[in-house]
């Protein structure tokens, strides 16, 4: 669960409390973030749900509507928040986020600088990674985006772990107050090479930088700028391939609905064989578990360039 602000009632409680943020799970591609308030209702195609019926239930509960439909009540983890947040900008998804946190070597207690904040998808995961004693300082040049992101972190109970500021890092660099104190720096900028000199001053000795860029030309210019003060420069592209798993009915020849490729390895379960009560021969069918690549798999998101500050 999210590391929440200790001054608020939050999802560290095993049961849902009033004012908690809850992820309402309808199906894998339909989820909503709802704040619990007595007297309020949530309405969808499954019926009407009263918040008062949800308060006091444990996270993960299956709850029924007035029509007998149901949803699940889930805790607002960073993984789920990434799927329900408002997209004010293009966001990073879980494959890139997990890779970034691992290669930036972020652990509890770290001080992390980020630019730009955007929709706050990565920032939320960074906050959990540095909790309970670390801190994330995130900067965005767009004041309205910064304000909306700050509001989201308050809703999620992360205000004690994240500080949002308005600043043009490309033009001004990071504030000098962080000079030599950052464990890690993350950049998501159109011209990240302009911020490299400032990053070199902010990082501790042996600190790590990550720059996210959608185009390879940006990567090339960034790597050129990293030559003077950084070492161990590496660029990655994270491509995730997911698979669909479902059970299909197979005929005696190994074919089946939705499977024009013919027989394939499968776990058989006999459904019907022999003669029926009416004396007619009935064809044998089996159930097969079919596995195939998902048609909705995401492709290229961006390039992740990592570099370590060279020790003097």
TrEMBL record:
Keywords: Methyltransferase, Nucleus, S-adenosyl-L-methionine, Transferase, tRNA processing. It is an enzyme of class 2 (transferase). It comes from the Eukaryota. InterPro entries: SAM-dependent_MTases_sf, TRM61_C, tRNA_MeTrfase_Gcd14. It is found in: Nucleus. Its EC number is 2.1.1.220. It catalyses: adenosine(58) in tRNA + S-adenosyl-L-methionine = N(1)-methyladenosine(58) in tRNA + S-adenosyl-L-homocysteine + H(+). This is tRNA (adenine(58)-N(1))-methyltransferase. The keyword S-adenosyl-L-methionine applies. Pfam families: GCD14.
